[in-house]
Design goal:
single chain, Rossmann fold, five-stranded antiparallel beta sheet, six-stranded antiparallel beta sheet
Amino acid sequence: MERLTSPKRVMADMIASAILIFSIFFTGVAQAQYCEAPTIFENGVRKSTQVTIHFKEKVFNLPIGLWQAQIGDVASSFSQLRQHFTGLEKRYGAVSFIKQIPNARWGEVWQRHKRTGELVRIHDMSQLFVVKFTQFVPIDSIIAALEKLPEVEYAHRPIEAISLADPNDPSYPSQWNLAKIEAAKAWDITTGATNIIVGIVEDGQGTSESGLPDKNHNDFYTGSGATGDSKFVSDKGDVGGAGPHATGVAGIIGGATNDGDGVASLGWNIKMIPYRFTSYDLPTNSLVSRITQARLDICDVINCSFVTRSPTSIKIGGCNLYTFWNYPSVATAIVDAITAGIVVVGGTGNTGLELPVENAALHKLQVVFPMFPFRPPIRT
């Protein structure tokens, strides 16, 4: 087995590692929040109605497109696993399963690399399930017990994420950011091409957030006003109402540029595909499913202007500090995209309140920063 070590591969690996080394942030501004399932605390015990689980073996063999399963659907060869879930059902009530990627097939672990065309190995997603309960259950103890089973690769609590707030710097309208990164020098080399596709994965929570950009905005047409070609791929991505955060992100990434109106973007000529993940909406609109779909749609870049977080916080000076949190199912989806030759980009925050990991004061708080379990892609 040989590791891929090209300069592009190394750069993509560095980007992935950087965006998934978690620090902490304040929630001092209105931000859209995503949660796969409600989480509560009772007498210091974390409870929820579901946990995510990934099996090492072919535990379920559902027909393609079907996503609901019961304990009886567990393959008969896994009797210990059946007994374990039956025990959970006796203790907590009915247990059911939701397949996170309904169209995933067992054994589909090879994909063409976006740039080299070589076959690269990705993770099996056919055995990624959510275990659903009909009441709130103590998920930490349930997860600990599940991870001791030989058939289980990992289990984790419901994913929580929060979109990064819009910048409120008074110079933002004059786009100081483009000058800061010397974008004009890059444009002297290239202004992008229409065959470069950027997938925009957004949090669709909040009263004013749909997680989708306003495709009818003038800046998403190549001509003057709402004329010319759309900057979005017509037959891909999610549909629905528009939200300001997603619209702003799309404008920065690929708004029509050099067309005499609106703002300038980094990618003058690139095309975009929008994806939205929403709470309590398994399996279609989960975070993992949208990242996976962006990979299957063969995007060149996947942009993630959000962070995954822990549900617990530390109260300091009237603000809640949350640790960024690593969910293995999300990390696996991102690793697979990178392995397939897709560049994954994540925001680091732009409120001015984010704190560096190196801050000694934070270490005094004994905040834990879990590292991204990066596994370099391999090929035969």
